[in-house]
Amino acid sequence: MAHRLRADAERNRTALLSAAREVFGEHGLDASLDEIARRAGVGNATLYRRFPTRRDLIAEVFAGQMAEYVALAEFAMVEPDPWPAFVAYLTRLFEMQATDRGLSELLVNSRFDDDDRLAGLRAAAQRGATDVIERAQHAGVLRPDFTRQDLSLLLRANAAVVHRVDLPNAWRRHLDLLLDGLRR
User: Fold this and answer.
1) 71 in the same domain as 162
2) How large is the average pLDDT for residues 151-169?
3) What is the arithmetic mean of pLDDT over 111-121?
4) Separation of alpha carbons 160 and 98, rounded Å
5) Which residues 6+ apart lie within 8 Å of 16 measured at CB?
6) How confident is the prediction for the chain on average, in pLDDT?
7) Taking CA atoms, which of 4, 22, 63, 89 is between 20 and 30 Å from 71?
8) Of 52, 71, 88, which residue is a domain's last?
């Protein structure tokens, strides 16, 4: 009987995480937890038993995507040409923002950095971003005054474009204009 309960608990957990990815992706990090439970087909008590706080749920949902953010820099560092590496890195970051509102908010907001896992991933991603930027600058293809803090500003601006401009793929046009201004 205990095995059956564990299987049910795992099914509920999986359903909750799937529903949370959808709801946070559509509505952002302040999305309704009631809606997440409803979409998962479980009660609120089940949600809170599995994830006592919103932070717990967000950390579990987005740890994998934040790990992808870290990996983007690693991939860019092995690309032979620093400019296409930088362009691909920035393009994928902007695309991630465009397809997932929750992740977009997480990338530009440090209010969840009290979660050790997310804070560690954010710090690793920031180190990786600095490496990608410095590599492109040393190759002479990126403005020498561009910093990781500027990247943070670009992500904030892109979040606004993605969520406030009612044009399909406006983020791509925004990115093209930015890249023209960043290339040395």
Assistant:
1) yes
2) 88
3) 81
4) 10
5) 36, 37, 40, 42, 46, 47, 50, 51, 57
6) 90
7) 22
8) 52
